[in-house]
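Name: Ketoacyl-ACP synthase III
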Amino acid sequence: MYLHHVAAYLPATVVPNDHFTRLNGLASDWIIERTGIRERRRAAPDENTNTMAIAAAERVLREAPGIETADIDLIVGATYTPHDTIVTVAHAVQHALGVADIPVVSISSACSSLLNAVEIVEGYFALGKARRALVITSEHNTAYNNEHDTMAGHLWGDGAAALLLCADKLAPTDLRVDEVVTAGAATVGKATTSVTLKPVERGIVMPHGRDVFQYACQYMTQVTQQVLTRHGLTVQDLRWLIPHQANKRISDVVLRNTGLPPERLVSNVETLGNTGCAGAAIGLADTLPGLQPGDRVVVTVFGGGYSYGAMLLTRE
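Structure predicted for Ketoacyl-ACP synthase III:
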């Protein structure tokens, strides 16, 4: 399986930390020290999870060499902030692209949903049921967020990304998907209460941030080392590590735990905030153009609930 192209969509509105200083009295330096976040994006009133997903999908198809919209035979959507739980993000993208009679499915495993979506594509490819797939990650966090929440209200941003995956190599710039590993960790710590989003109640709530921090660092380190070891590699063989973009301090701990040099970390949380399962995909979109033959990338993720995973990519 190959990653042919990645493209991102970001809303135009930028929300700086000063917004939360005025709202809650949280100093910008305090937010930066604890999260690394300086600003984040907010969807416009006429935007939502589905519109951002469509914009990302249209962009990836517009930019991808040698692929037409009609070639797409599978769409997998990933989000924990749905605009519509019936007309899912995958259905919305199918409708916008006008590709009929193909499998469309949307899934959620919180912020780690990106890699679960890639695994679903892997399964369809292995069964011979598809050969050209779109994975769409899109989060409209601000639709659910309570900005007055001084524990987590300043963390969230909006954005989307689309990945075009193919069963065969189409271009020299394609990345080979060497392995995808995912797992649930709902049995540890405060997994089922640390981060919740109950739309009929209060939206996104994070009462146990320390627990999230601890297990995110542990599992992203563990699964990164696991996937490298299985391929006879070390972190020194990596060009980039792209972790889930939740908190710069988490990324820094994972970096130290793995022993990877700081200059090989991909981070966008400073300017985008936590964009959920779209964050690592957006980072991959930014990184893709600069990759050279022989470069390897690990994408590692962690989600509330809990769940985690890693994907090893190689530019042949």
